[in-house]
Design goal:
Layout lengths: L7 E2 L3 E4 L6 H8 L16 H17 L3 E7 L5 E11 L4 E8 L8 H15 L3 E4 L6 H6 L10 H4 L9 E4 L1
Antiparallel strand pairs: 1-2, 2-3, 3-4, 4-5, 5-7, 6-7
Amino acid sequence: MAARLPVLETPRLRLRLPVDADVPALFAIFSDPEAMRYWTTPPMGDLTEAEAYVRDIHRHAEAGTLFQWGIARREDDLVIGTCTLLRIEREHRRCELGYILRRDHWGARLAHEALTAVVDHAFGTLAASSPGSGHRSSQHSRRSGRSSGSASSFEDTCGSDISSATRFRTR
C-alpha cells in the first residue's frame, strides 16, 4: 500500500494513510456539522462509522480507486483533516480533489499547504497535466484557504467561499 499512497511532507504537515489510531481524530472532524456542511454525507454519529471509514480508505488505496491522505500536524502527527484524489477516471485520464479540515485549524492556510502537496503529487507522480475543460484552474484550489467540502459539490461551490475540489486531466 505504501507504493499506492506515499507520505507527502510539507513544512507543517505530513500527509499519510490514516490508521486505526486516527479514528477518534477522524470522528471529531467528520462528526462536526459545520465542517460537514458541504460534504456529500451527513456528519458521523459514532466511532464505528469512523472505524469503517478508515477501512474504506485502505480498501480504496489498495484498489487504486481513491487516494485519501490524513492531514497530520508534523509536530505531533495528529490528524486534523483529509485530502483526497477521487473519481479517478483512468480511461479519461482525470481525477478530482477534495479536502476537509478540523474547524479549529481553519484560516491557517493549512488547506493550501496540503492541497499543494497533493496537486504536486498528482501532476508529478500521477502525470496529471491540466484542469479539465470547464473547470477552474488548480491555482484557484491551491490558493484556497477554505476549510472543507467534497468533489461532488465542486460545481455548486467553485468560486464561492467553500471551493474545495477541482478536476485534473492527465496526459
